[in-house]
Amino acid sequence: MKSLTKTMLGMVAAACLLSACASCQTDKNKPSASESTAAVDSAEDTQSEPHGWDFATWEDCSPLVGEHPCNFTLIDQNGEDWSLYDQHGKVVVIDFSAMWCGVCNTIAAKGDEFIADYGADKFVWVTVLIDNTAGQSPTESDIDSWVNAYSVTAPVLAGSRDMIDSTGEDGWPISSWPTLVVVDENMTLTFGIYGWNEEMMRDAVTEALSD
Predict the structure, then answer these.
(1) Could you give the domains of the chain?
(2) What confidence tens digit (pLDDT) does each residue in 61-92 have?
């Protein structure tokens, strides 16, 4: 398994490479991530939005570790807009999942567990569902189904393959499911991983919270 490093292609610890990370590949009769061009908002595009802090000075944004990820706004399970940049001041885990992915289903309730452990005042876990069970963009009904099946209270958003770009230049370089990233309180992407390894995720969140 691979971790999202500065080039998004670096290797993680040997244990993760061998067996510790679980993931679902993107090619299970579903559209390839490389077939879509991302439509993630850039800092330049959102300079007029009132987020209460200065992000307009960023020259660009990207999904690379050590940089500011691009803002995005999606609809959550309550029918409300959820924006990444509105979470400034908190550590954020973004869980990009697909409804047809077994591992994604297994960790669906982890967000609420992490929030209980780290505190909602300083930590956010958000799940972005990219595919429904048919490999299409999730509908409101799909989001409700996911939330009800796993009793999720953390934000669950309806995403799409438009958010993905395998090169990482115009979107999130997702190549397997789930893909998780950690964004610190300054909106800097500090860690990412393809697949699931709870120990690594907790270490990354703890480090981000301690900075």
Answers:
(1) 23-210 (3.40.30.10)
(2) 899 999 999 999 999 999 999 999 999 999 99
